[in-house]
Write a structure and sequence with these properties.
about 200 residues; mainly alpha; about 85% helix
Length: about 200
């Protein structure tokens, strides 16, 4: 009988995890489309050769999207260390509602006191320093991948590879920051809806 009481809790936790995975997949897919368009246009402007631009535009974003997914997961883990995960928050809310927590545990779960933080685990950085560090790390990663791919696809032309490697990541970094801010707003809206429910 007691196990049946936990079935709805478990189902809610599974639904929440599935939604989180779906949101991450959409974020990565939207980044890939944005990157594809920008990469082709920048490569075409630099090489003036549509074949090289198309090759760079198709191959480089695939490599960058894989690198972006790794970059985003690494930052997610960094940010998650500072905040409780959504699963923990849900479990704490449920146990508080079932009166399974003592007063001290409820204060910790609800973030009362100077040491507690409100928020969910996939919050993007909010301080200017965190945003700058995340954007800088993205730019360095992007530069290395862009030069490497462009060097191979231009037949070893270092001048073109460096031009593409310098200009294309700068343009992509601006678009990355806009993309990241848009997703931060989407995730903040979702967190507010969940908190209201």
């Amino acid at each position: 009988m007691q196990l049946r009481a936990f079935a709805p809790i478990f189902a809610a936790m599974v639904r929440m995890l599935m939604h989180s995975f779906r949101a991450l997949a959409l974020k990565i897919a939207s980044y890939g489309v944005m990157h594809l368009i920008v990469a082709i246009l920048v490569a075409l402007a630099i090489t003036r050769d549509w074949r090289i631009a198309l090759a760079i535009g198709l191959i480089e974003p695939v490599v960058q999207t894989i690198a972006y997914a790794i970059h985003d997961r690494a930052w997610h883990r960094i940010e998650r260390r500072r905040m409780r995960s959504s699963v923990e928050e849900t479990a704490e809310a449920v146990t508080a509602r079932l009166d399974l927590m003592d007063a001290r545990e409820q204060q910790r779960a609800h973030g009362h006191g100077p040491l507690y933080h409100h928020g969910h685990s996939h919050a993007l950085p909010t301080s200017l320093k965190q945003i700058a560090l995340k954007t800088l790390s993205y730019g360095v990663m992007h530069f290395a991948v862009a030069v490497g791919v462009a060097f191979v696809l231009t037949g070893g032309n270092l001048a073109l590879a460096l031009a593409i490697g310098l200009i294309e990541p700068l343009v992509q970094t601006v678009f990355f920051t806009v993309h990241d801010r848009i997703w931060a707003r989407i995730e903040a809206r979702r967190a507010r809806r969940l908190a209201a429910a």
